[in-house]
């Protein structure tokens, strides 16, 4: 059970009572009459054959308040798309599968590329962006939740707690970030958030001086959580990164577009576990190593837009400050683990911190060498301005795929 402490400048909605799911869902059914709700599921085809997604779909099939479900499907050929339509056909709610590798959506993507408006990288960011576009195109929903498809500990309480803050008509929240304790199999997980993001934000606060954006980012208990919800109007203006900086980029956009009292975070799960990325100590183009570089660059880019000037010497100071703070955090997490009867490998924790410290310098050097790098995908407002029929064409492509390849 969480405490009720409000830290930072973003409202925290705690799990104080283990409220029964039936009570939550009864309210959400009423809310859905005024604010119809949708769920976005960005998925790889391989996740359909994994352990997590089949269980997730079983739980979602029992959710009574969803108006629509939008599934973004990546890395699927025609046979796999047909299989996906059958797999998700178990859902009783209205749902559509975006075949991102199919000829219709690829043709639309090619036209957007010619206009300089398409995502430049494959991956979750691109998948989520097209799903957001479809939500705008369908016009069926006012409140939208998004969560990953690799959650091994999923039950439908997570979704109810995630979407509740933006679905309740008495609340004024435009955006809600989910958080939870990353503890599974007797270990504390979440290395990138624990050992990179929080120590790096604290280091930037020391080296760059007081900064309201950094205070904002430090308010989130789990900034890299892949679960968030939002009102539909958020989708028009948001610019999201196409790389591993997606979660940090979304928070940065919320900071840019909304006052703090329109944003919140909610405790959505007592336990949470999902697919773990490899540390990739010797490959900075994969795993947690690439993730750490992309996240660090996202923070540097945001601070640069606020007038902060960076240099190699500055990055060295940031690295040194980060390293000391992160090592102190290892002791803190170790003691927390011991008191709770959990395990924490200090050696592996320090190896991760050493790699993250090196990657701070790599990210800094990359930033200096490519100051105009813009991994952000254009907002749908901009796309709609350049291609006024884009929503109709996106919706038609998805509907035609469903008709041609569905059972």
Description:
The protein is of the alpha/beta class and 407 residues long. It has a single domain, classed as Spore Coat Polysaccharide Biosynthesis Protein SpsA, Chain A (Alpha-Beta Complex), CATH 3.90.550.10. 51% of the residues lie in helices and 12% in strands. The protein has 16 helices and ten strands. The chain has an eight-stranded mixed beta sheet with strand order 1-10-6-9-5-2-3-4, sandwiched between helices. Helix 8 (191-208) packs parallel to helix 12 and helix 13 runs antiparallel to helix 14 (346-369). The longest helix has 28 residues, at 312-339. It is globular and about 55 Å long. The mean pLDDT is 92.
What is the H/E string? EHEHHEHEHHEHEEEHHEHHEHHHHH
β-strand number:
10
Q: Structural class, from helix and strand content?
A: alpha/beta
Low-confidence stretches: none
Overall pLDDT: 92
- Please estimate the helix content: 40-55%
Number of helices: 16
Report the β-strand fraction as a percent range: 5-15%
Instruction: Report the end-to-end length measured between terminal Cα atoms.
Output: 46 Å
Largest sheet: 8 strands, mixed
| Radius of gyration computed on alpha carbons | 21 Å
CATH superfamily: Spore Coat Polysaccharide Biosynthesis Protein SpsA, Chain A
CATH architecture: Alpha-Beta Complex
Q: Could you give the order of strands across the largest sheet?
A: 1-10-6-9-5-2-3-4
Keywords: Transferase
Protein name: Glycosyl transferase
GO molecular function: transferase activity
InterPro entries: Nucleotide-diphossugar_trans
